[in-house]
Write a structure and sequence with these properties.
Layout lengths: L4 H11 L5 H9 L6 E2 L11 H10 L9 H15 L6 E4 L2 H15 L2 E6 L4 H8 L4 E5 L8 H7 L4 E7 L11 H9 L6 E5 L24 E6 L12 E5 L1 H10 L6 H12 L1 H24 L11 E5 L4 H10 L2 E2 L10 E5 L3 H16 L1
Parallel strand pairs: 1-10, 3-4, 3-5, 5-6, 6-7
Antiparallel strand pairs: 2-8, 7-8, 9-11
Helix pairs in contact: 1-11, 2-13, 3-10, 4-10, 5-6, 5-9
Length: about 375
Amino acid sequence: MSVNRRDLLSASALLLGGPALSLRLASARSPGAAPIVLCWNENPYGPSPAARAAVARSIAQGCRYPSDAEILDLEQAIARHEGTDTEHIVTGSGSGELLCALALLCGLEGGEILAAEPTYLELTDYAHGIGVPIRFVPVDAGLAHDLPAMHAAISASTRAVYLCNPNNPTGTALPAAEIRTFIANLPPAVVAIVDEAYMDFATGADVRSVADLVGDERQVVVLRTFSKLHGMAGMRMGYAVTRPELAKRLKQARMTTPNILAVRAARASLDDREFLAATRAKILASRTRITAELARLQLRYAPPQGNFVFFDTGMPLATYAQRMKERNVLVGRRFAPYDSWCRITIGTEPEVDAFLQALRASVHG
């Protein structure tokens, strides 16, 4: 959890510039100002210029469905990006829709789903709602997936194992080698669902995608999204990479198909690499600033690998959240059993300035 001097200096250099800090903070706290929303893991920099232009050009076609040709074009672009072919790609209205579809498939086939606790709940909440049994395995002392414990929890009724890597809300991530070994030791009938929504922000050693595993005999589904790095959370576009036979079943289980604006924006965003790289750099620099301040305040935090940080406020979360709300900053909800821990989204540079000032005041208040 230490921050080295080089990281901190690099973050400071990248984030310098723009209006004076005092003016930005005053604006953030001005009476009647809209609250700073840092509770939803959104990318505040939004879609790329190319994606925005694609949406603007498509407004008049909002009465139309996306054509089969442009959906295929998007799938081909995603396949090239993933180093595979379109038979392995399933697009959806956000990766959340595909998680729900996977839960539905597991429910139709019977059996239970295994997941970490805490983790992202889209799949498990949907599965619970349709009657699929869920078994949770607590994260380890480092707030990461406890793979040995998860493997020990597998039973004859286990149908799927859900791994969110990097994990939400803890932000921790497992090396690809550990995930590969875990998947290799799964029973053949168990589907490994690997949610890589935050992988674009990962910097840890060997923390990388395992999408190439879909080419072997194991049942693996890797999910990615345009909601995070691409800044398209409100437009809903995601995809899965999996074996062709599982891809066909997943397509049949989808509830809908992506809308024309999302399809065209996603296609344009894939090629806007300069903007994506700049957005990533700003978020990582701000992440370093936040962890440096947490370390200075002697507040524990999980090693972050996403666009958010999970840290121990040192007080009941309700107390901390109220203190931050009084300073016009909205922070994340409680994630049991971590009653004093808070998940904070990395906002824009002025928002991070305001958060850090409110953090100091709240901790010492």
